[in-house]
Design goal:
The complex is a heterotrimer of chains A (about 210), B (about 425) and C (about 230). Helices cover about 30% and strands about 10% of the residues of chain A. Chain A contains 6 helices and 4 strands; from the N terminus they run αβαβαβαβαα. Chain B is of the alpha+beta class and about 425 residues long. In chain B, a hairpin with a 2-residue loop joins strand 6 (about 200) and strand 7 (about 205). In chain B, helix 2 packs antiparallel against helix 3. Classes of the chains: A alpha/beta (about 210), B alpha+beta (about 425), C alpha/beta (about 230). Chains in contact: A-B, A-C, B-C.
Chain lengths: ~210, ~425, ~230
C-alpha cells in the first residue's frame, strides 16, 4: 500500500517452444474468447453519454448480444469500466477509487468527448481527459457518441482482448501513482495535454 | 449499550456562528443541535442501539446520476438523510459568460440532458425577449411540438428508470423503444438524437423536412398503445402499488414552501402549471388538462406523469392540425444568418453573416427571465446583458435542484428501500442540479 | 384515503386570463402592483422600480431584505408563497456593486416579482438569509455562497455545495476568477485527488472518533499523523 513501484520494463520472452506452444496458444485463445465475449461493463455514467449508453443497452442496439447486458455496478464484479459522461474534479477521486477496486483483468473505455478530453467543458471544473486519472484502452469520440459508435468501440476492445497473451506479465501489472504527487504522469505532461487547442482566444475572452 | 453520543464534526468552512466559532453539524444528536436538523424521533426507545451510517453513491445504479446520500439508519429506518451533490459541477454558468447567445445553445442541451429541445427552446425564448424579437407563427407551433415531444421523452426515461429501481425491468425496454422513435424524429429534424441544439435566437436550426409530419403522426398513433401497455403493467400492480403508495408525502403548503415544482408540486395538490398560469408559445390556445394528485406520495407522482404524457400527445395532435406555412426564422438580420446563396453573392448579406458569426448578435442592455414548464418543473433561464455579444450573467434555475433539497424531509421515517423509490419519484437529473 | 385540499392558482378575484405576452416594450409598461404596495409599506427602503421587458424589478436596501421578503410572504394582499430563485449578478464594470436577486411568485395572484439588493464589493459580502421564510432558500443560498462568496446570515448550514469543502481556488462566478481556474491543471488534479471522497460522513470517521481511546499508542500516533486506511 502506498509503495512506489517504478514500472520495470518486463521482457516478454518470445521463446517459441516455451511460450508459444500449441497448448498455451489454445489456452490463450480460449481465455481471451471467454473474456472478450462476456465483458461485464461497469457503467460509470455521469451525464448525457449515460443516456446513450442506456439506449445502447436497450432493445434496439442491444448490448446483450455482446454478453454485456449484465451491468457490474459493483466494481469487484466488473471487467470494463465505461466512463460515460463528463468527470468534474470533485468526481475524480471517486473514479480513481472505483478503478482501483476493480480486479484484474480490467479495461476502460472513455465514452464521449468529455471523458476523453474534457470536451466542450474547458474550464475550472472538469478533468481534461480521464486518462490523466486512469489508463484507458479505447476512446470513443462523439457528443454523445451514437450507439453504433459505442458498439464499434466495444468491438475494438474485443479485438484488443483477443490479442492478450498470458505469457505477457507486464500487461496486467498495475502501476501505483506516487503518493506524494498522486499523479500517474508528470505534472508537465498533464499541463501539456490539457492545454487549450488551436485559436481559442475567443473561447476564453468574456465581454467582446 | 443503549446510549447515544453526540459527535461533532468540525466543518472546514468560513461559516461562523453567532459566537464566532465554526458552525458544526452534530452527527448523532442527543439534543437539538443545529438549526437545520431536528432531533431524530426515538422510534423504539427500549431497543435503541447505535445508529448506522450508510453511504449511497456517488457511483450507484439507483441514484439517477452522481448523487451521494448519507443515511443515518436506526435498523432499517432512516433517521436522517444528508445529500451531497456537486459531483457533476461543470461550470455552465461561468462558461455562459464567455459564449455568444447562439453558442450557449449547445450547453442548454447538456444541463437537463433528458429535455434537450425543451431547454433549447426555453433559452431561445429568453434570448428573444432580450432582443425584443417576436417569432413567426410557424416557429411557435413547431416549438410547442418540440417541447411536448421532449416532455414525453423525459417522462419515458423517468418511467423506465423508476421501474428498474422498484424492480420492474420490462417498462424500461418499452420506454426506450419509444424513445428510439422520438430520436428518429429529432434526428430527422435537426440531425442529432439526444443533444439537439435545435433552436436559435429568432427561430430554429432548421425547418422540418418533407415527410416529417407523417412520421410524427405515426408516432402519435402508436405511442398511446405502448403507454396503455405500460399502464396495464404497473398501475394496478400490487407490488407497484405496495411500494409506492404513502411514501414521501409532502402536503401542499410544504411543497410550495420548499419550492417544489412540476409533477412533484401537482401531485401534492397544488394546481399550478406554468403553461396555464404564466403561458408562453400560445399555450393558452391549446385544449389540454393538467393532472393534479391529492395524496402527495410516490404513486400520485407516477399517475401525474403518466397522464401528462397522454396530455402531451393531445397537444401534439392539435399542433399538427394548426401548423401554418411560412418561414420558421424571423426575418431580422441582427440575429438570423442570411441564406447561403445571398451571403456568397451580396455584399450586405456577407457583412451580416460575418458580424453574426464572428461577433455574435448583441442585444440591448437589460435582463430577462423566462420560465417554462419543463418535465421536471419550473425551468428558468435568467440572462443579463450589458449590450455585448456575451451575457454578463447566465443563470439556470434548475427544478431538480430545488426538488431534491426536500429529500431529507421526505425520507425521514421511511425504510431504506423506500429511499430509492422516493429518490426516483423526484425525477432528478444531475446535469441540471450540479451544472 | 382522504387527500389534501387542492390549492388552485389565481384564486384572487378580478385577475385577467393568462395569455402569452406579445410585443412587450423594452422599458415601461405596467408594473406589478406589488411594487406600489412595497413603496407604500417600506418607503425609503425601496430604491427604485424598473419594468424591463415586462418584468418588474424592485431594487431594495440590502439591510431590509429579510423584512421585505417576509412581508411579501406573510401579507395576504401580496401572498408570495413561492420563492423561485436566489442568485447574484456581478457586472463586468468593477465599479458596480454585486446585485443579489430574488425571484418571487404569487400563486394566488399570478404575479412574478424580482427583488434586487446591491452589495458593495469593497467589503465582505453579507446579506441576511431568507431561509426562515422559504425553505427552498436552503440550497439556493448555499450555491450562491459557493459561487460568489456571499455569506448569508441566519442560514443554518452554510457550506459549499457544488465544489468540495476544501476548494482553494476561490469563488468561481466572480469576474476576477479566470475561466480555467487559478491553478495549473496538474495542480488542480493533485488537489482533487487528495480530497477524501468519503468525508462527511463515513463509518470510518465515526468509528475512529469512537474507538480512538482504545487504540494502541503507536496506531493513535500514526492516525494523528494523517495515515489513511483502506485503498
Amino acid at each position: 500500500m502506498g509503495l512506489i513501484q517504478a514500472p520495470t520494463p518486463s521482457v516478454v520472452s518470445v521463446d517459441p517452444v516455451n511460450s508459444e506452444g500449441w497448448i498455451t496458444t489454445r489456452l490463450d485463445f480460449l481465455v481471451n474468447w471467454g473474456r472478450a465475449n462476456s465483458l461485464w461493463p461497469m457503467p460509470f455514467g455521469t451525464a448525457c453519454c449515460a443516456i446513450e449508453f442506456m439506449a445502447t443497452a436497450a432493445s434496439k442496439f442491444d448490448l446483450a448480444r455482446f454478453g454485456m447486458e449484465r451491468m457490474g455496478y459493483s466494481p469487484r464484479q466488473a471487467d470494463v469500466l465505461i466512463c460515460a459522461g463528463r468527470v468534474p474534479y470533485k468526481l475524480a477521486p471517486v473514479l480513481r477509487r472505483i478503478w482501483q477496486q476493480m480486479s484484474q483483468p480490467k479495461w476502460a473505455i472513455s465514452m464521449g468527448a468529455c471523458a476523453s478530453t474534457g470536451g466542450m467543458f474547458d474550464n475550472y471544473a472538469v478533468v481534461q481527459g480521464i486518462d490523466t486519472i486512469i489508463p484507458i484502452d479505447v476512446y470513443v469520440p462523439g457528443c454523445p457518441p451514437r450507439p453504433e459508435a459505442l458498439i464499434h468501440a466495444i468491438m475494438m476492445l474485443q479485438k484488443k482482448v483477443m490479442k492478450d497473451r498470458m505469457s505477457d506479465t507486464a500487461a496486467r501489472e498495475e502501476m501505483e501513482p506516487d503518493p506524494t504527487s498522486q499523479l500517474y504522469i508528470p505534472p508537465s505532461l498533464i499541463n501539456t495535454l490539457s492545454e487549450q487547442f488551436g485559436n481559442s482566444i475567443p473561447q476564453t475572452r468574456s465581454g467582446q | 449499550m443503549a446510549t447515544k453520543r453526540t459527535i461533532e464534526v468540525e466543518l472546514s468552512t468560513t461559516g461562523l456562528g453567532a459566537d464566532g466559532k465554526p458552525q458544526r453539524i452534530p452527527l448523532v444528536s442527543g439534543d437539538t443541535g443545529g438549526l437545520a436538523l431536528q432531533a431524530p424521533p426515538a422510534l423504539e426507545p427500549e431497543l435503541e442501539g447505535e445508529h448506522m451510517l450508510i453511504n449511497i453513491g456517488p457511483q450507484h445504479p439507483a441514484t439517477h446520476g452522481v448523487l451521494r446520500l448519507v443515511l443515518e439508519l436506526d435498523g432499517e429506518t432512516v433517521v436522517r438523510c444528508i445529500p451531497h451533490i456537486g459531483y457533476l459541477h461543470c461550470g455552465f454558468e461561468k462558461i455562459g459568460e464567455y459564449r455568444q447567445y447562439n453558442q450557449i445553445i449547445p450547453w442548454t442541451d447538456r444541463d437537463d440532458y433528458l429535455n434537450c429541445i425543451g431547454n433549447n427552446i426555453a433559452f431561445a425564448m429568453g434570448a428573444e425577449k432580450l432582443f425584443g424579437i417576436e417569432i413567426t407563427p410557424r416557429c411557435t407551433v413547431l416549438r410547442v411540438v418540440g417541447m411536448e415531444l421532449s416532455r414525453i421523452a423525459s417522462h419515458l426515461v423517468w418511467m423506465g428508470t423508476t421501474g428498474i429501481d422498484i424492480g420492474a425491468f420490462t417498462p424500461f425496454l418499452w420506454s426506450f423503444q419509444e424513445r428510439e422513435n422520438i430520436y428518429n424524429l429529432f434526428e430527422g429534424w435537426v440531425g442529432a438524437r439526444l443533444t439537439t441544439s435545435a433552436s436559435r435566437v429568432g427561430g430554429m436550426a432548421a425547418d422540418i423536412p418533407d415527410g416529417w409530419l407523417d412520421g410524427l403522426k405515426a408516432f402519435v398513433r402508436t405511442f398511446p398503445k405502448t403507454l396503455s401497455e405500460c399502464d396495464r403493467m404497473l398501475t394496478r400492480n400490487s407490488i407497484w402499488v405496495g411500494r409506492t403508495v404513502g411514501l414521501g408525502v409532502m402536503n401542499p403548503e410544504e411543497a410550495l414552501n420548499y419550492g417544489l415544482s412540476g409533477p412533484m408540486l401537482r401531485a401534492s395538490g397544488v394546481d399550478y402549471d406554468l403553461r396555464k398560469d404564466f403561458p408562453y408559445l400560445d399555450y393558452e390556445t391549446y385544449d389540454f388538462e393538467v393532472p393534479v394528485g391529492v395524496h402527495g406520495d410516490v404513486y400520485d407522482r407516477y399517475l401525474v406523469r403518466m397522464e401528462e404524457m397522454r396530455q402531451s400527445v393531445r397537444i401534439i395532435e392539435q399542433a399538427i392540425a394548426r401548423l401554418p406555412d411560412g418561414p420558421v426564422n424571423v426575418d431580422d438580420p441582427r440575429v438570423i444568418l442570411p441564406p447561403k446563396h445571398k451571403a456568397t453573392s451580396e455584399m450586405e448579406s456577407m457583412i451580416h453573416h460575418f458580424k453574426n458569426v464572428m461577433e455574435g448578435p448583441r442585444p440591448a442592455i437589460g435582463e430577462s427571465y423566462v420560465a417554462v414548464e419543463a418535465p421536471k418543473g419550473e425551468k428558468g433561464y435568467y440572462m443579463v446583458s450589458d449590450g455585448t455579444a456575451k451575457p454578463v450573467r447566465w443563470r439556470i434555475r434548475p427544478p431538480s435542484f430545488v426538488n431534491l433539497s426536500a429529500i431529507p424531509k421526505m425520507v425521514e421515517g421511511h425504510l431504506l428501500s423506500d429511499v430509492i423509490a422516493i429518490n426516483a419519484s423526484i425525477d432528478i437529473v444531475m446535469g441540471e442540479i450540479d451544472r | 384515503m382522504s387527500g389534501f385540499t387542492v390549492i388552485e392558482a389565481g384564486t384572487a378575484p378580478g385577475l385577467p386570463t393568462p395569455a402569452t405576452p406579445k410585443n412587450v416594450p423594452h422599458r415601461g409598461g405596467d408594473a406589478n402592483p406589488s411594487a406600489e404596495a412595497l413603496k407604500a409599506q417600506f418607503g425609503a427602503a425601496i430604491a427604485r422600480v424598473d419594468v424591463v421587458w415586462g418584468e418588474t424589478n424592485v431594487t431594495i436596501d440590502s439591510a431590509r431584505a429579510l423584512d421585505i421578503v417576509r412581508w411579501l410572504h406573510d401579507d395576504p394582499s401580496q401572498s408570495y408563497e413561492y420563492l423561485s430563485d436566489v442568485t447574484a449578478v456581478e457586472f463586468r464594470d468593477r465599479g458596480m456593486p454585486i446585485e443579489m436577486i430574488w425571484h418571487l411568485r404569487s400563486i394566488k395572484y399570478r404575479r412574478f416579482l424580482r427583488l434586487k439588493a446591491p452589495l458593495a464589493t469593497g467589503q465582505p459580502l453579507k446579506i441576511s438569509s431568507v431561509w426562515s421564510v422559504y425553505k427552498s432558500a436552503d440550497w439556493l443560498e448555499r450555491e450562491c455562497y459557493d459561487m460568489f462568496g456571499i455569506v448569508f446570515e441566519g442560514h443554518p448550514d452554510l457550506r459549499r455545495i457544488l465544489l468540495w469543502e476544501q476548494y482553494a481556488e476561490g469563488f468561481p462566478l466572480r469576474k476576477d476568477f479566470p475561466l480555467r481556474g487559478r491553478f495549473s491543471r496538474a495542480e488542480q488534479l493533485r488537489q482533487a485527488l487528495a480530497a477524501n471522497p468519503e468525508a462527511r460522513y463515513s463509518m470510518e470517521e465515526l468509528s475512529i472518533a469512537d474507538a480512538f481511546q482504545e487504540l494502541p499508542l503507536d496506531m493513535r500516533a500514526r492516525i494523528r499523523g494523517g495515515e489513511s486506511t483502506g485503498e
